[in-house]
Specification:
The protein is mainly alpha-helical. It is built from 2 helices and no strands. Helix 1 packs antiparallel against helix 2. It is elongated. The N and C termini lie far apart (about 35 Å). The relative contact order is 0.19. The mean pLDDT is about 90.
């Protein structure tokens, strides 16, 4: 069973990937894809916030 650190590490990696995909979707003007990715982004952001992760340096989405 994964511990808290492993869970946070996985969530951070997923958060960074989602942001990369969001940038690509925005660049390609894929609005539906971007909206779906944003839902996932917001969920991961909330989880990381509750876990006490400082998102200042890793959150590249400025909306």
């Amino acid at each position: 069973m994964p511990n808290g650190l492993e869970i946070a590490k996985t969530a951070i990696e997923d958060f960074k990937k989602i942001q990369e995909y969001m940038f690509l979707a925005k660049k390609e003007n894929a609005t539906e894809t971007y909206a779906k990715l944003k839902d996932e982004y917001l969920s991961l952001k909330a989880i990381l916030h509750v876990a006490g992760v400082n998102l200042t340096d890793i959150d590249k989405i400025k909306e």
